[in-house]
Specification:
- Helix content is 42%, strand content 24%.
- It has 107 residues and is of the alpha+beta class.
- Strands 1, 2, 3 and 4 form a four-stranded mixed beta sheet that branches.
- The longest helix has 13 residues.
- The protein is globular.
């Protein structure tokens, strides 16, 4: 996280005709410059208690992106962020500090 080796990607979610939103997902750049899918590293991050920090990182990085009008995003949150009250409160506090012009595009 501190080395910014997590990269954000997005995938459009559609019904075949209309785009509903873009789902944000992450990959980890390994020391060998391979991209590792979240399914590979998130179970270990959860065991180490780092999943919440990754959720905060994703929110922070997304808030720095240029977001166009009518562009909507979906973020996947870890159980640690959702179920642990202190983590949930911290996440929601961080979300509330994002500029209102950007917050409206994050569901």
């Amino acid at each position: 996280i501190k080395e910014h080796r997590l990269a954000l990607y997005s995938q459009k979610v559609t019904n075949g005709n209309d785009i509903f939103h873009e789902e944000i997902y992450i990959k980890l750049m390994s020391n060998q410059f391979n991209e590792l899918n979240a399914g590979y590293f998130m179970p270990m991050a959860e065991k180490l208690g780092l999943a919440h920090q990754i959720d905060l990182y994703v929110l922070s990085e997304l808030s720095k992106k240029t977001i166009e009008e009518n562009q909507f995003f979906a973020l996947n949150l870890s159980a640690d962020t959702i179920l642990k009250e202190s983590n949930r409160v911290q996440y929601l506090n961080n979300l509330s500090t994002i500029l209102s012009s950007r917050r409206q595009f994050i569901h």
